[in-house]
Design goal:
Layout (H helix, E strand, L loop, with lengths): L6 H6 L4 H16 L5 H9 L14 H9 L2
């Protein structure tokens, strides 16, 4: 399974500054120490699996229908 970990991506999933510090440490470990971080990334990403800062179809059904009709 592929997981995004970019700043914009993780902000949308609700990650705050403390967890970003953890993420930076993990990335630094992978780059500077050649450490395997797969489990750390998986564990960290698992905490942020629900997309928070976006709108879903249920929020604007009329708008979604109008958008579909333009296709």
């Amino acid at each position: 399974m592929r997981c995004g970990l970019g700043v914009a991506e993780m902000t949308r999933f609700g990650m705050g500054s403390e967890k970003f510090r953890t993420l930076v440490g993990t990335i630094a470990g992978a780059i500077l120490e050649d450490r395997t971080v797969k489990k750390e990334v998986r564990d960290l990403r698992h905490e942020f699996s629900r997309l928070r800062y976006c709108f879903g179809e249920a929020d604007f059904p009329e708008t979604m229908e109008a958008l579909r009709s333009t296709l």
